[in-house]
């Protein structure tokens, strides 16, 4: 029917052209983005699956990076342990050298100085080696967890490579004596730290003997009324005796005279009396009282009240002063815990065995880091494979098939062009009706 009120053909052509245009626009969007799913209306279920897969891929990739960071951390620690290994080997070499009898005490003292420095460097490395401010070599407690996926972790235990952890605390065999309560002696100049009173006016005589050295005999004057001594006065009395030994030289011509006593300040600001061996090689020290006293006769820095002659080493009155650590170490036995040293052939042989044990301990810890690195490398490989497979799955769900979409684009382009042409033809149809109206 020829009509002018409604152009049905034009409306039909316009509707089909609109559908072709929408399809063309969708194809252009997909080809431009490379994605089949650009919004939920394209494929709601597919979109939900894709986003979950994308989240898994991101987690796996970050887990792989975490594992790589873990390897970097362990490589840092393992590298530090390689340097420790060099130091321990050098310490073992020095111990072997000092164990032979062809060196003098003075030469062993020089060797021991380097031996102590090597141990101190191991201590420094253990505390200073950090990765992202995380230390792993100065404590045997605690772990570092490497997160390598949604729920998986690989735990790496910390290790103690300090001197105490390796049992290589060095020392020089020097000794110090102190009261069980050092807070009573907070002033080395004026505070009375020794009081002697004896009705029989007996002197308080003590003998200080370091292993293998000249005995030091010290007399503190006693009187019917109390005779008191400050810490400095005690130091002076002892040094007067140690600088004037009964025998001035040993068989090799070495001078026995020296200042055995000094005052040291503790970390809390108090003071103690330090008694030091002549050459630092002494393995023990004994202190004895030479005569009896009436009850309450001797009070102060040398311990509780002494009423009889004999050994004064009991009663937790003595502490070792380690000059290499400048610290006090509890020692009630007199000789125990003098610290690892190579000042004598016997000490050097002991040190060599101790260093061998320390090397084994270090090797065990280093091996732990090694196989943890190998495990992390395997973890990285599997995480990368999982991420790759998930990306492939996500691609099949989400990515556009370019070949198919190009075919669709071509078809919709033809339909759009045909639609435009037909719409133009349909718009000319009412013109035919005008010829009848002329």
- Assembly state here? single chain
Query: What's the domain count?
Result: 2
Specify the biggest β-sheet.
5 strands, antiparallel
**What is the element string, with H for helices and E for strands?**
HHHEEEEHEEEEEHEEEEEEEHH
Low-confidence stretches: 179-184, 330-337
Q: Nearest-angstrom radius of gyration?
A: 45 Å
The main sheet orders its strands as 10-11-5-15-16
What percentage of residues falls in helices of 4 or more residues? Answer: 40-55%
> From the helix content, strand content and strand pairing, which structural class follows?
alpha+beta
Beta fraction of the residues?
A: 15-25%
Structure description:
- The chain has 438 residues and is an alpha+beta fold.
- It folds into two domains: 53-169 and 349-386, f41 fragment of flagellin, N-terminal domain (Up-down Bundle), CATH 1.20.1330.10; 175-339, no CATH class.
- The protein has seven helices and 16 strands.
- The protein has helices at residues 8-33, 44-99, 105-128, 163-166, 231-242, 345-398, 402-437; strands at 130-131, 134-135, 143-147, 153-157, 175-177, 192-196, 204-210, 216-220, 227-230, 261-265, 271-275, 285-289, 298-300, 310-311, 318-322, 327-330.
- Strands 10-11-5-15-16 form a five-stranded antiparallel beta sheet, with helices on one face. Strands 8-7-12-14 form a four-stranded antiparallel beta sheet.
- A hairpin with a 5-residue loop joins β10 (261-265) and β11 (271-275).
- The longest helix has 56 residues, at 44-99.
- It is rod-shaped and about 160 Å long.
- Mean pLDDT is 79; it is low at 179-184 and 330-337.
């Amino acid at each position: 029917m020829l009509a002018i009120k409604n152009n049905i053909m034009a409306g039909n052509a316009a509707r089909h052209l609109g559908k072709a245009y929408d399809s063309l626009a969708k194809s252009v969007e997909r080809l431009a983005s490379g994605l089949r799913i650009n919004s939920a209306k394209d494929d709601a279920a597919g979109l939900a699956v894709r986003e979950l897969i994308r989240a898994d891929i991101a987690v796996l990739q970050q887990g792989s990076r975490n594992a790589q960071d873990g390897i970097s951390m362990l490589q840092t620690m393992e590298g530090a342990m390689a340097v420790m290994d060099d130091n321990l080997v050098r310490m073992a070499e020095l111990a072997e050298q000092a164990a032979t009898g062809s060196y003098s005490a003075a030469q062993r003292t020089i060797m021991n100085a380097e031996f102590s420095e090597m141990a101190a460097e191991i201590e420094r490395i253990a505390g200073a080696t950090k990765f992202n401010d995380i230390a792993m070599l100065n404590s045997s407690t605690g772990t570092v967890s490497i997160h390598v996926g949604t729920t998986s972790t690989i735990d790496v235990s910390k290790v103690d490579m300090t001197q105490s952890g390796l049992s290589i605390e060095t020392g020089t065999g020097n000794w110090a004596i102190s009261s069980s309560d050092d807070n009573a002696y907070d002033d080395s100049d004026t505070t009375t730290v020794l009081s002697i009173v004896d009705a029989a006016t007996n002197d308080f005589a003590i003998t200080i003997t370091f292993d293998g050295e000249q005995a030091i005999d010290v007399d503190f004057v006693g009187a019917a009324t109390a005779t008191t001594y400050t810490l400095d006065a005690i130091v002076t009395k002892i040094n007067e005796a140690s600088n004037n030994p009964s025998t001035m030289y040993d068989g090799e011509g070495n001078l026995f005279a020296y200042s055995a006593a000094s005052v040291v300040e503790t970390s809390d600001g108090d003071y103690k009396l330090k008694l030091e061996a002549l050459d630092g090689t002494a393995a023990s020290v004994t202190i004895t009282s030479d005569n009896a006293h009436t009850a309450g006769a001797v009070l102060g820095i040398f311990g509780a009240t002494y009423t009889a002659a004999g050994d004064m080493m009991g009663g937790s009155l003595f502490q070792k002063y380690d000059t290499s650590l400048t610290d006090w170490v509890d020692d009630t036995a007199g000789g125990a815990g003098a610290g690892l040293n190579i000042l004598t052939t016997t000490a050097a042989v002991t040190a060599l065995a101790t260093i061998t044990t320390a090397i084994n301990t270090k090797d065990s810890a280093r091996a732990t880091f090694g196989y943890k690195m190998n495990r992390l490398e395997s973890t990285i490989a599997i995480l990368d494979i999982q991420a790759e497979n998930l990306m492939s799955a996500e691609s099949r769900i989400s990515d556009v098939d370019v070949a198919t979409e190009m075919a669709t684009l071509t078809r919709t382009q033809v339909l759009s062009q045909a639609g435009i042409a037909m719409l133009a033809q349909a718009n000319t149809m009412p013109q035919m009706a005008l010829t009848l109206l002329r």
